[in-house]
Give the backbone structure.
Amino acid sequence: MNVPPLPSNSASPNSALGWQRLRLTIAVSAALGFLLSPAWTAPTLLVMLRAILVGLVAMLTFSLLERWPRRLPRWLGRWVLQVISVAVVTPFAVFIAYLLTTGHDATPLWQNKERLQGMGMMMGFGVLLVPWITMTALLRQRDSTVRNQAQAFALERMALERSALDARLRLLQAQVAPHFLFNTLANIRELVDSGSEQASGVLDSLIAYLRAAVPRLHESATTIGQEMQLVRAYLDLMHMRMPDRLNYSVQAEETVMDLRCPATTVLSLVENAVRHGIDPSEDGGDIEIRVLEVAGRCRVQVSDSGLGLRPTQGSLGTGLANLRERLQLVFGDAVGLRLAELRPRGVLAEVEFPAQRVAP
């Protein structure tokens, strides 16, 4: 009779003789000893003790051969060595267990026919059971190793995918910064070229705005509340440049202010409305911004009364195409971006993405 050498949770030396394996070995040995005790005339506790001693020897042998010898011939698998070795050591373990538990007897073990019969029967049970129990332990150990490796590979793959997404997102963010800055500086240049007296004041406002806005251009995500601050600062700047041609209003529910929002999401929509709708129009127009939460989704709407969609405009343009890709990197496919023409003129740009609150 024998006890299964139980698999460890990892192949490291520290876990090979770990407490978990030791506890399981003792528990299983005691259970087998109890179940087989009716076949012996010895007390049940004595049979259980012998089974535990045999199980510990088998466990030590199994664990030792996990690490030694370090190298084996190609034709000899380690699992084969473990199975054969544990089977060979079992009779010796039974003999040692009987010596330790009968050393106080007046009659030597080899002269006690009844004890010899019991020892022979335990050796028979051990040699019969140990290969199957050891194979079961090896299969469990292999399955555990495969699961651990699969989990490790999955975590590594997720980390690599996350790193790739972060790198892509930072690249897109780097494209946003010069795109926004060049557009704004071009507007300031036009104001200076026209000799406007507002040029100095607008430039001061631009400097103050950039001090607050540029650091956020490099953040992967902000909140709707922070986006609203940037949008108001930008529209104030644009209003100073064309006070008679631009009016705007901002409507955002208080409950959406702490929602997660990729950096410059709303700003990109507003800048697109100014650049392609209001600025080219002789009469200018109005820009209306609305942000609300609908059915667990954040909806951002930016409408303008500018020129509207041009017949030759067949794509979203660089800014909005960049925005859509950044949204997909953050939220996956659960995003929406669409443009719609308004009557009598103007464009509605709408973005939707999952409503995720940022912890304070």
Notes: The chain has two domains: 13-151, 196-354. The chain has a mean pLDDT of 78. The chain is about 60% helix and 10% strand. The two ends are 63 Å apart (CA to CA).
